[in-house]
Write a structure and sequence with these properties.
By secondary structure, this protein is of the alpha/beta class. Strand 6 (about 90-95) and strand 7 form a beta hairpin. Helix 3 (about 145-170) packs across helix 4. The longest helix is centred in the middle third of the chain and has 40 residues, at about 175-215. It is globular and about 65 Å long. The strands form three sheets. Strands 2-1-4-5-6-7 form a six-stranded antiparallel sheet, with helices on one face. Strands 8-12-13-3-14-15 form a six-stranded mixed sheet, sandwiched between helices. The chain has ten helices and 15 strands. The protein has two domains: about 1-110 and about 310-373, Rossmann fold (3-Layer(aba) Sandwich); about 120-305, Glutathione S-transferase Yfyf (Class Pi), Chain A, domain 2 (Up-down Bundle), CATH 1.20.1050. The two termini are about 20 Å apart. This is DNA replication and repair protein RecF. Keywords: ATP-binding, Cytoplasm, DNA damage, DNA repair, DNA replication, DNA-binding, Nucleotide-binding, SOS response. The RecF protein is involved in DNA metabolism; it is required for DNA replication and normal SOS inducibility. RecF binds preferentially to single-stranded, linear DNA. It also seems to bind ATP. It holds the Pfam family SMC_N.
Amino acid sequence: MRLNNLHIRNFRNYDELSLDFHKNVVIFMGENAQGKTNLLESIYALALTRSHRTNNEQELIQWEKEQAFIKGNVQKEYTKVPLELFLTKKGRKTKVNHMEQKKLSSYIGQLNVILFAPEDLSLVKGSPQGRRKFLDMEIGQIDPVYLYESAQYQKILKQRNQYLKQLAEHKQTDELYLDILSEQLIDHGSKVLFARQQFVKQLEYWANQLHQKISQSKEHLTIIYRSSIPGDHWADEQTVKETYAQEIEQVKGKERLRQVTLAGPHRDDMSFLVNEKDVQTFGSQGQQRTTALSVKLAEIDLIKEETGEYPVLLLDDVMSELDDSRQLHLLETIEGKIQTFLTTTTLKQVKDKMSVEPEIFYIRQGQLEGEDV
């Protein structure tokens, strides 16, 4: 899978820009705050219909403009797929092959991307919320059903939390309605839980291989899905559903007191163990970075295994955050098999280590200043 071209209009600091891509490695080069990351963000948004930097879509639309537009042609093994994303102040609209898509699940997955930015190095030591978001975004690309189930779960969770508050304030007394919400929560939540568990197993398989390579076989990486539902290795969805229902029944009294849902995927986390020690707590900064790098790069092979196509890789100034050894392993992993877009302020860290000639675009104040092909 590769992106052949990109056209953006009224997006961030770009009035209008069209780019064609001919090589497997594309570099956006320029000083800070010129718009390099905005280009990566536009590719990410084209793939996933949202930004990785903000939840407010209006921030993506240029000041005093009504809408932003992103278009690109995706080259797959047997076909070309034109994608279009319209961002307006009232919402977003997507098109595949010039036909509008009513369902998000019909659009996402047409272009698979993996973004690796400096903040991703905090995937290991960052917040559980960040790791849950990571799981949701990555599973959603390869499993459209997961997107639906996750969205439904969040919707029911919000309704259930609101109703728990109303019960506590004696504004409502209908226990039957709470039971109905609980059933719906368990139905959607069990599907989310099982999909996450299966994904983490696959992720561990690929990430451990990379981690051992980077550490020269000195370290073994284990990834564990930590759930608020007892048991982290369920045999099937039905087992998850039954266990989830038992747990909801167990915490019912506490939920009434605290006015919040206490069990489910919204409270879960992942743990990373290096040589059986929790790297989040006991690992060195180097081990934490190697773990984050292994996990992000593992997604490349995982997505290839699930979809039959390699994803597109977006590297946002990440080379400057890695030492020479990790830079080398990153470049060895991607060269020759995956289209890569990266941003940098200097070519020295990147070009000298590459065995292929990259395509370079120079960006200045939201405009293409020059091109070296």
